[in-house]
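Q: What changes when calcium ion is included in the input?
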Amino acid sequence: MTEIELIAHALETLGPYVMERRADREHLGISSKSHANDLLTEVDIETQRRIVALIGAAFPGDAIVGEEEGYARYPDEPGARAWIIDPIDGTQNFVRSLLPEFGISIAFARGNELLAGGVAFPGTGDVFLAERGAGASRNGRPIRVSAVASLALARVELDFDGPPKRQPTLDRARALLLNGGQVRCHCAAVLGLCSIASGDADAYVHVSLRPWDYAAGLLLAEEAGGASSDLSGHPVRVFGENDGLLVSNGRIHEELLTHLRRA
Ligand code: IPD
Ligand code: CA
Ligand code: CA
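A: The predicted holo structure follows.
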């Protein structure tokens, strides 16, 4: 089994489990982590456990970096084979939202180089997959970023965290709200990033994310022809310090950076 095959298999088997649990929203086993809006459910934990078990069986010895249960540690060894898991990205939307705007995200990297990744949206059944150098697909069909060439016509996905990080978001949001064609906030990193990959959005902005939030979605957007940097224009280092994340269709990247740097 190759890495991308494992990712595809995990996403396809876990999507139905996650939806089955969401159908009984009274019994998700909800708790909070760093603050009251940072939610965790039993489904996040069980989904991560199942992904960890699949990886452990197929690729024993690989590092596993995941959001939950003590896996939130970056590999010590540079260039290590590492899997990066967000069992549910958009947990707030998983717990409480009319639309199921959340996803399961799995990526494989060697050091900071993302090599394979996939995101499943169990609510729609969509599965996005990408391998470095081989393009990106949605449900088996190749996808490309949009051709929108100016911020004034762009659809921008602005994403943000709980109250502790709102001020830096606000500083950047002003420039986007004043200059972007449309600004949307779905608050699920996977949704924003896959929307860039599929051409349904033109830019995604966040002031502070962790690798499990964006690893698979970033590879998908890049393989669909998109561009990425941090908000200062520096390359993104998956296991390094970044000044937020900017992912776009490429054509409006410099224009976005001009506004974001000024903010
Ligand atoms: C969150 C989502 C959200 C982003 C937050 C993340 P979670 O992940 O990606 O879009 O704004 O910063 O923590 O907690 O739902 O996995
Ligand atoms: Ca997340
Ligand atoms: Ca999560």
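Observations recorded in class: The first helix runs from residue 3 to 22.
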